[in-house]
Amino acid sequence: MTRGWVRLAGHLDPGECAALAKPETLPWSRMAPKVGAITQHGWFAQMLFHQAPVPVQTLGALVLTAVSAAMDQKLPDWNEVTWQRYEAGRGHIDPHRDQARYRGLILIVTLSGQAEFTIFESRDPPVVVDRWTTGGGDMVLLRGADLGAPGVRCPLHAVGPPAADRLTVTVRHNERGYGRQAAYQRGHLSPDQAAEPRVRHTSSEADPSLLHHHARPPRCAPQLEAPPASKPRAPQR
Ligand SMILES: O=C(O)CCC(=O)C(=O)O
């Protein structure tokens, strides 16, 4: 993880990917289309790591144990699982860093579909340091905040539009804890209740490139939108 990202191509087979699929009863919500300067298009669904399907928890535990051992460091435990769906030709996320609340390791698994995954050194001007086509079974490990050294941040990264629908599952440690936003998205809390407690923002958090797309939807965002007309296909079960 010294560079801040690792790609493990084809690590999982299609059967293993199918076992990591989003539970059918968990609804999709639309990503906020714009966060600062960042545009994105896609759908997400979140749940607590410890309530996630057993295969997700098993994979998460294996990866965390292996990376903790390799780094000789106890990494923060996972507490949040996010499935994402990108529609063919339009799903994407502009260059961004996951917010500083995402500490330790970030694990992204592509369950199906292919897209260009790019790591940037800078956004403006755009300086690319690595790029690959991510496909089903690929695992990408990203450095979250403070991994390896205090103050380090998630690398600037982007994902492009897939040719066919793409599904992913991401496992992270959210230091602010999981739950309020998901409850809001499901309509259990009012927007005011779901608003985050006032926190002191560091200058880095004021940088729009550091905002994460589904942590803070605009107040006017619909609480829960209907899933897109073409329902997610495999590996839904
Ligand atoms: O879809 C991916 O592979 C990456 C997603 C991403 O960059 C994010 O959720 O922050």
Topology:
Elements: E1 5-8, H1 14-19, E2 29-30, E3 34-35, E4 38-41, E5 43-48, H2 54-71, E6 80-86, E7 92-96, E8 102-112, E9 115-122, E10 127-134, E11 139-143, E12 156-159, E13 166-174, H3 180-185, H4 191-194
Antiparallel strand pairs: 1-11, 2-5, 3-4, 4-7, 5-6, 6-13, 7-12, 8-11, 8-13, 9-10, 9-12
The structure holds 2-oxoglutaric acid.
Q: What class would the helix/strand composition place it in?
A: alpha+beta
Q: Provide the gyration radius in Å.
A: 17 Å
What percentage of amino acids are in beta strands?
25-35%
| Stretches with pLDDT under 50, minimum 5 residues | 182-213, 215-237
Quick one: biggest sheet? 7 strands, antiparallel
Give the helix tally: 4
CATH topology: the name is Jelly Rolls
Top CATH class: Mainly Beta
The share of residues in helices is 10-25%
Hetero groups: 2-oxoglutaric acid
- What is the CATH superfamily label? q2cbj1_9rhob like domain
The total beta strand count reads 13
Q: Average pLDDT across residues?
A: 81
- CATH hierarchy: architecture: Sandwich
Span between termini: 33 Å
Strand order of the largest sheet: 1-11-8-13-6-5-2
Order of helices and strands: EHEEEEHEEEEEEEEHH
